[in-house]
Amino acid sequence: MMKAKTRLYLTADRLALVLEGDTRAATLYATPGDDIPDSAAERYGLVDGALGDAPTGEPEGVLRVATFDGETVEVAGYRFGAEWFGFRDSDLDEGQLLAILKEQSLNVEAALLTGPSRFPDYVPFPGRAGAITALQAHVDYDLAHGRPHDRVGLKSEDYEPHPAEVSPPPAPPPPPPVVEGGNAAPTGAAQATPAKGGKAVKAAETKEKSAPANKEAKASENKGAGAGNGGEAAKGQG
Q1: What residues contact 15, with CB distance under 8 A and at least 6 apart?
Q2: Which one is predicted more confidently, 73 or 200?
Q3: Can you state the angle between helices 94-102 and 128-145, rounded to 10 degrees?
Q4: How far is CA 186 from the centre of its chain?
Q5: pLDDT band at residue 169, thresholds of 50, 70 and 90?
Q6: Looking at residues 67-79, what average pLDDT do you find?
């Protein structure tokens, strides 16, 4: 904890502290003697209660938000308007970012950081619809399990997959059926029909085995019918 030694003002995007009289000054942050937390001192580059040697100009932010029509909107505990409102790494949690992205009146842009420059280019938030879907799954999981929301923009070395992204591996497919001989039945093979003794016999084989018997029975039947017709004919001649 340190005490402010001069009047300090926040810029409109809340990304930097400037001195009184600076054209970028928007909101009074502290007056001499006010306590300043160590986290804020580190964030804004304060040294012993005054601005240090941090480069002047707009610091890097990971996200900035404004309304499309210039009207004031309150979302996720913040008030947004026509001026850009900036967020640094880990300023927001996933629940807050989800609420901001879902608000259609808000123009949300992400920093496109290239090299060591402290003046990043900003682009429309990439994959906004997909991000909403992913964040909603995380938030729903957190609410269901009493888990605090993760912070947004954690450094890659600190990142751990969200529990909602970790799913059990899919179950292995069932083994193919086994037919007589111990071989797996090929796709499209003739269906096997149970036979006496519990052995499986292919339907096609059953059909072939029964064909001769049917043929013999039919021939015998035709022969008997022919003999009968002959007898009737002989009787008619007599």
Answers
A1: 58, 59, 61, 86, 88
A2: 73
A3: 140
A4: 38
A5: low
A6: 89
pLDDT, position 183:
58
Higher per-residue pLDDT: 101 or 158: 101
On whether the CB atoms of residues 202 and 186 are closer than 8 A, the answer is no
DSSP for 81-142, written as a single string:
-SS-EEE-TTSSBHHHHHHHHH-TTEEEEEEE--TT-SS-EEEEPTTHHHHHHHHHHHHHHH
- Among 71, 137, 76, smallest CA distance to 101 is for 76
By mean pLDDT, which of 22-31, 47-56, 164-173 is the weakest? 47-56
Instruction: Tell me the C-alpha distance between 84 and 234, whole Å.
Output: 117
Q: Length of the chain in residues, anyone?
A: 238
Q: What are 98's two structure tokens?
A: 């989800």
Q: Which sign does the torsion angle of CA 152, 158, 155, 25 carry? A: positive
Identify the sign of the CA torsion 125, 129, 133, 136: positive
